[in-house]
Task: structure prediction
Amino acid sequence: MTTLFKNGTVFTPRGFEKRDVFVSDGKVFVNSLSSLNIDRADRIVDCTDKVIVPGFTDVHVHLREPGFFYKETIATGTAAAARGGYTCICPMPNLNPVPSTMEALQVQLDIIKENAKVKVVPYGTITMEQNGRSALADMEELAPHVCAFSDDGKGVQTGDLMESAMERAKKLNKLIVAHCEDESLLDGGYIHEGTYAEEHGHKGICSESEWKQVERDVKLSEKTGAGYHVCHISTKETVDIIRCAKEKGIDVTCETGPHYLVLSDADLQEDGRFKMNPPLRDAKDRDALIRGIQDGTIDMIATDHAPHSAEEKAKGLAGSAFGIVGLETSFPILYTHLVKKGIISLEKLIELMSVNPRRRFGLAGGTIEDGQPADLTVIDLAEHHTIDPAEFASMGKATPFAGWEVDGRITMTLVEGEIRYEETTA
Ligand SMILES: [Zn+2]
Result:
């Protein structure tokens, strides 16, 4: 099967260029087209009004399988990824069985092999059974099969344990990917400790619960030399700590989520679809995150796609489970609210969603060049639509962006040349 994408605006290593893209044998060709039989392609797709970018990579998703398939499965979560333009995703290990041993990880790898619609490279845990407090996982055994090590969902509660984890990860040449949350500072909170919580009588989560652990870990990364990546940063203090660490040359990177860049606690409603961990912070935090994106302190955007059942999300801010879905809304939300408003360029957004995550995590692909795997996303930037969770491929429907009017729609996603999503036009 060969496909010719004609006359698209293509994201090449030199930036956007008007080009034809030819896909053959799962590989992409853009430069050597004159020597190929492109006019005899099995299919020709007119891309005159479309952009073609390297498929997005999300280093932070929850696929819920094995263990919690009533929330999401590897089949539905990867279908959602393809629909959102993602060709590679990295699922977090808060599963059952917990992938802290090879035996447990194998259960997940078998389902991935059977059902995944995009590339899936899972995490192994940092601590055994992800308990955050005692023994480390079988990191040596897991290393060849995982993208990195993370206890996401929980923080590693002691510095000593994190230091040993970093020493082992460094030897294995893998990143430690940290959900930073000091449990001793939580005190039953569930939204940001700020104006909204105060005015509406909710229990708050302080910013310190996040940045205290980041501060601890940055020092440990400096001491051990281990590569360290911080999950879903949400506070202005965290941005400052990471900016300083980078200036000192420490091997630190981080991600934030679309919701932290577009919303703040001023947008909260008494509805579970506004509840996630970390919580939406205040406008000063959001603005600091935007500056962090602009100046390169924040390396990538990850969705923290965290589906739950409708029932689990129907219990308001206090009672609902933490987590919102994100794979199917991230591009249009960020394109509409960051690119179209002139906050960042489209090139920058593609770097944040495609190029940087792959580079930092050592994942394949990431460029549209001759002979590279054809992991591609085709986008119609002009297509205006309303976000409707009923259309999601994900089993999770809880999103704060329901009903938002956006521009930019994914029209096709290819993984190694195979179409894994195509928009059906009525
Ligand atoms: Zn997390």
Remarks:
- The chain has a mean pLDDT of 96.
- The longest helix spans residues 208-224.
